[in-house]
Amino acid sequence: MSRKIARIVLIVAAVAIPAAVAEAGNAQRAYVEAPPKDCTRLNGRWGYYGNPWCSPAEQLRWDRWEARHSGR
To answer: Between the CA of residue 59 and those of 3, 42, 63, 65, 67, what are the distances in Å?
Structure first.
C-alpha cells in the first residue's frame, strides 16, 4: 500500500513541477516596465512649469521616462 502511495506522489510531482517551472518562466517574460505617475508639466511660456500633484522626485522620474520614450 505504501509503495502505491509513493508512486502516486511521484507521478503528481513529475507533472506539477515542470508546469510550475514553465509558469514561472512565462511570468518573467511578461514583465513590462510601467510608466511612472504622469507628471506632465503645466502652463507654459513664462508661467509655472511644474505639476502641483507631483513631488520633485516624481517629476524627475517622469521627465527621464518621457525623454527615454520620446527620443529626445
So the answer is: 64, 12, 6, 10, 12
Terminus-to-terminus CA distance in the chain, angstroms? 70
Domain boundaries defined on the chain: 1-32, 36-72
pLDDT in tens, 25-60: 665 556 666 778 888 888 877 888 778 888 889 888
Dihedrals φ, ψ of 58, to 5°? Answer: -65, -40
* pTM of this structure: 0.44
Q: How far is CA 2 from CA 8, 10, 12, 34, in A?
A: 10, 12, 15, 51
Q: Which grid cell is 3?
A: 509503495
